[in-house]
Amino acid sequence: MVTFSGLYFDPSVLIKIRYEIPYRDIFYDLDGTLTGLGPKTWATPYWKHNEQPGCKVDLDVYDGLLCDSTVQVRRIAFYKYVPDIFFIMDLRILKIDDSIVGSMDNATKSAYYKNTSSYSIVPFRPKLDPTNGWAMPFVTGHKYKLHWRYGLDFTEMRIDLSPHWKTDDNDLYIVHNFTDVRA
């Protein structure tokens, strides 16, 4: 997370942000001079799971999402997984707030879960921070379903919160699939 304040953009500037791989940046705008949305606002790369109330997509000028001061954005990293079958596997993230899936009947919910266009598809990152894992920005206060490409279960996984996470931040709910295999 990078904090900004007191920025000035020449009127000739048409693109204010251009993100690069791995697309996990979080920009916190203290005074609104970056986002134009007022103080305590956010800019982050576009990920489908972060299309939340209080956020809007602006790919032309900001190359991602802009979120107002009602929102918090924090990073979560997933790594040190067992078994090693997760190596180079995509992470899939789906929004599953009660306001989205709570009133769906089973058939509609099943179709929503199977619709790959509803997911953020996060590529595996072999680089540092963390090594061999996935690190992503999340809009807090929401519920997300996470699974890996083939829906496999892990027996161990390290999940780290950003050091910027505060005790009074909104909660984040993460749901994982679990398969209990018995002989």
Which tags fit this structure?
single chain, 183 residues, mainly beta, 5-stranded mixed β-sheet, 4-stranded mixed β-sheet, 12 strands
Could you characterize the architecture of this molecule?
The protein has a domain of 103 residues. The strands form 3 sheets. The protein has a 5-stranded mixed beta sheet, with no helix packed on it. A 4-stranded mixed beta sheet has the order 8-7-10-12, with no helix packed on it. Helices cover 7% and strands 33% of the residues. It starts with a strand and ends in a 7-residue tail after the last strand. It is mainly beta and 183 residues long.
Give the CA-CA distance, first to last residue: 46 Å
- What's the helix count? 2
What is the molecular shape?
A: globular
Strand order of the largest sheet: 1-2-3-5-4
Q: What is the H/E string? A: EEEEEEEHHEEEEE
Number of strands: 12
Set down the secondary structure blueprint:
Blueprint: E1 2-4, E2 27-29, E3 41-45, E4 55-58, E5 64-67, E6 73-82, E7 91-95, H1 98-101, H2 106-114, E8 119-122, E9 134-139, E10 143-148, E11 156-161, E12 173-176
Parallel strand pairs: 1-2, 10-12
Antiparallel strand pairs: 2-3, 3-5, 4-5, 6-9, 6-11, 7-8, 7-10
